[in-house]
């Protein structure tokens, strides 16, 4: 027999040798290494064309005798145990994300890849050999490529059926909007869902929709909106070219629309003048050049989907009454469990990657963070400051080291929470006199009454209301049951 070291001298370095072959060579002549189990980390990774995520969920010990079928069964059990863990963190049992083993699409170990319930036969290099090359086993859930929403359900903790309902609702209604508090991942979620709407329909090479998307964070005027729609080829100055595109089904996706420029562009698009059976037109005079007017043509049939933060929502504009609205309410599942599930999943991931033991003190601190978020929103509801509600994503980056959590929360409070509450408290006090009201400070009086009900005295209805609201939040939401002793 040729020793392994001598065998290497006969190898042409320009010749490709698979990782599996190298794995076999690495075990030759090493009986101790051949009998030693190999621990591989199991992780779940996002599907292609979706927002990236990667979470470790556990480890599997692979022995020389373990078959591919046994490995798959062990992997599936680990996956289901993980789903059970993140489904009910901190005793949260109000809803389930509904993930099952059937949501698994592909499993990979080294260069070996197989579909769920179609594991390699025993004639292939055994798992033990593959594990010598790659010490990580990867699970991919079914996603856009499979025309399913299972991967998104795991990522966003929203049941797959709910996500399908969102897609169907957008397909079946011309004008749809979603509103809810800031930091609810609306932008990322619907960016992923838009990719489903861009996929070809069954037995067709044509996409369901041609999605035209832009974000209102970068839009400062109606001129910007018009320029963007022209650049995306939705608005055209030539009628004949528009009629040639009449078969294209457009979906305009306006992310985080604002009431000023957003209302103007919606009014323009939804009040066009019919030009032919397939297109309509609008005349527009630019703010920069009021002396000239341009006629733009666009399809007669198109869909609009918009998202907005609750604090920008207004029913005063007639144009919004043409939309069918989907509310994201923080007090309802699955939104009320998002922070608990996200922090629990991150803790599992960090513990596995860094080989940490379960830290009960860290768990108490994470539980406290979720309670702070919930109590903060509950207090704002009682103080009639619903516009300052915050979604759970603001706290998704909570550190997994107990000793740094207080400093992290302090920074969040001082840079985001306090300025936001202060702004909305004072704005509410300074609102113009509402109809039927006897005082221009009716809003301030309402807040003041809420504060006095909590035995908190105030001196003036403006600055003092803002300061007192922050005082209430700090003591009712943050200080209560804080496990970080002395902080």
Automatic annotation (TrEMBL):
<keyword id="KW-0175">Coiled coil</keyword>
<dbReference type="InterPro" id="IPR057568">
    <property type="entry name" value="CortBP2_NAV1-like_AAA_lid"/>
</dbReference>
<feature type="domain" description="CortBP2/NAV1-like AAA+ ATPase lid">
    <location>
        <begin position="353"/>
        <end position="428"/>
    </location>
</feature>
<dbReference type="GO" id="GO:0022008">
    <property type="term" value="P:neurogenesis"/>
</dbReference>
<dbReference type="InterPro" id="IPR039041">
    <property type="entry name" value="Nav/unc-53"/>
</dbReference>
<protein>
    <recommendedName>
        <fullName>CortBP2/NAV1-like AAA+ ATPase lid domain-containing protein</fullName>
    </recommendedName>
</protein>
<dbReference type="Pfam" id="PF25408">
    <property type="entry name" value="AAA_lid_NAV1"/>
</dbReference>
């Amino acid at each position: 027999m040729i020793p392994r070291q001598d065998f290497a001298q006969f190898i042409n370095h320009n010749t490709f040798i698979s990782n599996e072959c190298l794995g076999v060579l690495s075990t030759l002549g090493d009986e101790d290494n051949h009998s030693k189990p190999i621990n591989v980390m199991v992780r779940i990774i996002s599907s292609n064309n979706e927002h990236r995520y990667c979470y470790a969920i556990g480890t599997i010990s692979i022995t020389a005798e373990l078959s591919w079928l046994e490995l798959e069964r062990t992997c599936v059990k680990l996956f289901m145990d993980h789903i059970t863990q993140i489904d009910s963190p901190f005793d949260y049992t109000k809803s389930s994300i509904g993930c099952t083993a059937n949501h698994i699409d592909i499993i990979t170990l080294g260069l070996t890849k197989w579909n769920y319930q179609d594991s390699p036969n025993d004639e292939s290099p055994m798992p033990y050999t593959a594990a010598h090359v790659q010490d990580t086993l990867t699970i991919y859930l079914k996603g856009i490529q499979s025309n399913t929403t299972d991967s998104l359900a795991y990522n966003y903790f929203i049941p797959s059926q709910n996500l399908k309902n969102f897609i169907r609702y957008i397909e079946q209604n011309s004008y749809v909007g979603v509103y809810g508090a800031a930091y609810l991942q609306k932008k990322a979620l619907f960016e992923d869902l838009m990719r489903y709407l861009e996929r070809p329909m069954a037995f067709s090479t044509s996409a369901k929709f041609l999605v035209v998307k832009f974000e209102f964070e970068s839009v400062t005027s109606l001129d910007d909106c018009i320029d963007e729609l022209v650049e995306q080829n939705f608005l055209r100055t030539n009628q004949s070219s528009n009629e040639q595109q009449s078969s294209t089904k457009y979906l305009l996706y306006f992310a985080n629309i604002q009431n000023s420029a957003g209302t103007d562009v919606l009014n323009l698009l939804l009040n066009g003048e019919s030009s032919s059976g397939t297109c309509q037109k609008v005349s527009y005079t630019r703010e920069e050049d009021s002396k000239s007017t341009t006629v733009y043509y666009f399809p007669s049939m198109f869909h609009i989907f918009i998202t907005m933060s609750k604090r920008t929502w207004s029913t005063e504009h007639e144009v919004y009454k043409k939309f069918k609205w989907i509310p994201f309410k923080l007090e309802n599942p699955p939104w009320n469990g998002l922070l608990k599930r996200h922090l629990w999943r991150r803790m599992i991931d960090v513990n596995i990657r860094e080989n940490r033991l379960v830290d009960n003190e860290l768990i108490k601190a994470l539980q406290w963070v979720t309670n702070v978020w919930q109590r903060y929103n509950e207090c704002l509801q009682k103080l009639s400051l619903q516009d300052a509600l915050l979604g759970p994503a603001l706290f998704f980056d909570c550190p997994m080291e107990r000793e740094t959590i207080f400093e992290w929360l302090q920074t969040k409070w001082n840079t985001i929470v306090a300025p936001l509450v202060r702004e909305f408290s004072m704005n509410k006090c300074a609102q113009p006199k509402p109809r039927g009201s006897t005082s221009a400070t009716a809003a301030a009086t309402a807040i003041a009454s809420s504060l006095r009900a909590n035995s908190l005295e105030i001196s003036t209805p403006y600055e003092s209301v803002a300061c007192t609201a922050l005082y209430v939040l700090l003591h009712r939401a943050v200080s209560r049951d804080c496990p970080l002793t002395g902080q």
